[in-house]
Design brief:
Elements (H helix, E strand, L loop, with lengths): L4 E5 L3 H13 L3 E5 L2 H10 L4 E4 L8 H10 L8 E5 L4 H9 L4 E4 L4 H12 L5
Parallel strand pairs: 1-2, 1-3, 3-4, 4-5
Length: about 130
């Protein structure tokens, strides 16, 4: 079975530690980044199979990073699952319009997150 690589991008160390522990426990290889600059460095080293992305981050927001990912030929097809506390309809519609595959609201329902990650990584389009 292929070991999928997931990049977690969140400016909260607490959230990163939580997501990393949950996903590693489920057999995934995890890279982490506290901001978009670190995320780009991770992507340059190894293209992830999935990106978990927070929206509210310093300097470059998750919205802007999602736009950058979709504009780049090398990262255009990487599925992005947004994990954020910003859960109003306008922002959810915006991230889906920008190409995110789904949205998970913080605080995170761990079981739902694991199921969603599994579904995305095992979909026929992936």
């Amino acid at each position: 079975m292929k070991q999928y690589n997931i990049l977690v991008v969140d400016d909260s160390t607490t959230n990163i530690v939580l997501l990393e522990a949950i996903l590693e426990e489920n057999g995934y290889k995890i890279d982490t980044a506290l901001n978009v600059k670190e995320a780009i460095q991770c992507i340059d080293k190894r293209l992830p199979d999935l990106i978990l992305l927070d929206l509210l981050m310093p300097k470059v927001s998750g919205f802007e990073f999602l736009e950058q990912l979709r504009a780049d030929e090398n990262t255009r097809m990487i599925p992005v699952l947004v994990v954020s506390a910003i859960a109003d309809d306008d922002n959810i519609n915006r991230i889906l319009h920008l190409g995110a595959v789904n949205f998970i609201k913080k605080p995170i329902d761990i079981q739902y997150l694991v199921e969603e990650v599994h579904k995305i990584l095992n979909s026929p389009t992936h």
